Amino acid sequence: MGVATDPDPASPADLVRRIEHIALAQGFDLGEVRTRSGWDAGAEVSTDRGTVVVSPCAEDSFCIRILRHRGFASSEGWTNDLVAAVGVANLWHQGGSLRELRDRFPFMSWTELAQAFEDGDPAPAKWRELLSSEWHLRDRPFLMAAHAHPQLRRVWPDISHRSLTLCRTPFDLESGLVKIWPLEEGRYRVTMYPGDFWREESSLSTALEVAAACFASAAADGG
């Protein structure tokens, strides 16, 4: 005979049920609450500004993250009060702001970049983050040169493996993405997506002008 076991309160399915019960008792409309797998397994609530993830942590506490994109959290925090975690999900689902989140749930924190997203102009904050980062110290001259260009400083930057990615809309490759790759002997390759455009240039200044021309061309074509 099989032996009946109690539900695991830390399992994603049970966490979903607990959140649904709390939402019902509080009169919250969270929409569909789904299980989430992976390293941050738990429950998730979808909103038009990203996903609210509630994951069990050690010592009966919960980690709450509001993910604008899978690689970027608008806000995160920890609490041992699941009712409060559900309150965070409800506030965000109903369109609450980061400042409202801070006022009602002080355990939730966020960065300058997250606030810049909410204010509608995240590119300058991302440039400041990259230019001040010790992690990218080796690439700082490259970043400073790109930021000095009046057209390029207006687009979203990122850098990985020494290549600079510039995107018209953060996390949206289809909006227009230009990448500048440092090569040997001081040369640079410029590529653009969508499309199969690429060009090699003998100086960084020329590569930056080509990158700016790519964005100007896309805008002229209505992209």
Radius of gyration: 22 Å
Return the string of H and E elements: HEEEEEHHEHHHEEEEEH
Provide the β-strand percentage band. 25-35%
Adjacency order of strands in the biggest sheet: 1-2-3-4-5-6
Reported for the largest beta sheet, the result is: 6 strands, antiparallel
Low-confidence stretches: 1-6
Question: What would you call the shape?
Answer: elongated
Span between termini: 65 Å
Query: Tally the helices: what do you get?
Result: 7
The strand count comes to: 11
Summing up helix and strand content along with how strands pair, one would put the structural category as: alpha+beta
In which range does the helix fraction lie? 25-40%
Q: Let me know the average pLDDT.
A: 91
Give short descriptive properties of this protein.
single chain, 223 residues, alpha+beta, five-stranded antiparallel beta sheet, 7 helices, elongated, disordered N terminus
Quick description:
The chain is α+β, with helices and mostly antiparallel strands and 223 residues long. It is 35% helix and 27% strand.
Structure description:
With 223 residues, the protein is of the alpha+beta class. It is 35% helix and 27% strand. The chain contains 7 helices and 11 strands. It has helices at 12-26, 82-93, 98-104, 112-119, 123-132, 140-148, 204-220, and strands spanning 33-36, 42-47, 50-56, 62-69, 72-79, 108-109, 156-160, 163-167, 177-182, 188-193, 198-201. It has a 6-stranded antiparallel sheet with strand order 1-2-3-4-5-6. A 5-stranded antiparallel sheet has the order 7-8-9-10-11. A hairpin with a 2-residue loop joins strand 4 (62-69) and strand 5. Helix 5 (123-132) packs antiparallel against helix 6. Mean pLDDT is 91; it is low at 1-6.
